[in-house]
Amino acid sequence: MPGQNSKQNSNGKAEQGAQRCSQGHQLREPPNTGWNGPIPAKDGGREEGYLQKPPYSWESKEFQVKYRAKCWCGKLEFEYHGDPIDAKHCHCTQCQRLHGAPFQWAALFHKTSVRLAKHCDPLNLDFFSTQEGHSEHSVPCKISCRNCRSPMA
Ligand SMILES: [Zn+2]
Ligand SMILES: [Zn+2]
């Protein structure tokens, strides 16, 4: 679609080269949060040692927590660096069934801007691979709390 990669900002200046994904979200370079490796499971699927990589248990001094989100029982808490890329309500039937609700509200972050809080045991993570239909960790996947079952991501 012509013009899709440029838009006017509030100052009337054209913002050039802002890439958008298929859902129309603007794709900016991820902020520097101190992760130097490749983006884990960038193209989906399984990855060795994923629990020690973003968005799970990893540490860096560049990561500055701006937001936190925890499940109902508190055994899972995620930390977020900076502001979300975007936020959306999704009314698709997959989201309705996965969340048991008329829609899902999601705030979108780069994977390297997310981590599991230090006090959380990764054994409390539960996964559901939406492409493969099983509960092993394979991206894309949904994340929930193994204890209280709250959907987290
Ligand atoms: Zn919980
Ligand atoms: Zn949806």
UniProtKB/TrEMBL annotation:
Segments for region (Disordered): 1-53
Coiled-coil segments on the chain, per record: none
Keyword Ribosomal protein: no
GO molecular function terms attached to this record: carbon-sulfur lyase activity; metal ion binding
Keywords attached to this entry: Lyase, Metal-binding, Zinc
Domain CENP-V/GFA as annotated: residue spans: 67-153
Transmembrane segments: none
Biased composition (Polar residues): 1-25
Keyword Transmembrane belongs to the record: no
Membership in a protein family: Belongs to the Gfa family.
PANTHER family linked to this entry: CENP-V_GFA DOMAIN-CONTAINING PROTEIN-RELATED (PTHR33337:SF40), GFA DOMAIN-CONTAINING PROTEIN (PTHR33337)
Name this polypeptide is given: CENP-V/GFA domain-containing protein
Organism: Kalmanozyma brasiliensis (strain GHG001) (Yeast)
Source species taxonomy: Eukaryota, Fungi, Dikarya, Basidiomycota, Ustilaginomycotina
